[in-house]
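Thread: Newbie trying to understand structure tokens

Hi all, I'm a second-year student working on a class project, and my supervisor (Dr. K.) asked me to get a predicted structure for one chain before our next meeting. I've only ever worked with sequences, so writing a 3D structure as a token string is new to me. If someone could post the tokens and maybe explain what I'm looking at, I'd be very grateful. Here's the chain:
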Amino acid sequence: MLSRHSKALAILSLSVAFVVGGLVLTRHVIAVAGEADAGRLNRSILDYIAQKNPQAPIRAFQNFPEILMAEAQKSNLDHCLLLAQAEVESEFRHDAVGAAGEIGLFQMLPSTAAIMEPVLGPFKRPAVKQVREAKSWRELGDLADPVVSTKFAMAYLRDIMTRRWNVKDALTEYNGGPAGRHPHYYRMVMGTYVEILEHQELRCRFRETPKPAPTLTTLLVRA
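---
Reply by user tm_fold:
Sure, no problem. This is what the structure looks like when written as tokens:
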């Protein structure tokens, strides 16, 4: 027959086991719920792309949402802002080619992407023949891959933001140097961003900048 001390230890051990088991189960449930939540957001992003560009091949964009979210977090920017930039740059055409030879979702010149190779590693350049004649996105090189395009574009944007912390200035330089190439580029991106904010399923992380509290000097002046 167990002594009172042994019974107490047994009850304590059983209680600890239940608590630990409960914590493990809770963490597992939270992890599963988080994965399901991320999966829904990824599908919402792909659905949005399909709405804007019905010709967009799913296989090309399959891993794009996950990379978009990761790069947005690294850049400390709303993923919806980056989505708006991609829409303005290429209308979600992963194999888009610009007038100056820009390639892909974020319309990067191979020479610009090369600047980020020391950080991200080498990428496959477009075929030797003129890119406008390319019949396959594979002939355009890695920049026609939405994942690669996003990684290089965001690394380049982060590099700019080390010098220009203001988003407007950073996007302007991304578009083509400090003066930019398109006078309305920033407005176009922000206009698209505002439209995307209306899509609750995309779970944009926009937050209004809180108004600074009035200082004592301001209060005295008002008085």
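A couple of things are worth pointing out once you decode it. The chain has ten helices and no strands. Residues 23-34, 216-223 have pLDDT under 50 and may be disordered. Feel free to ask follow-ups in this thread.
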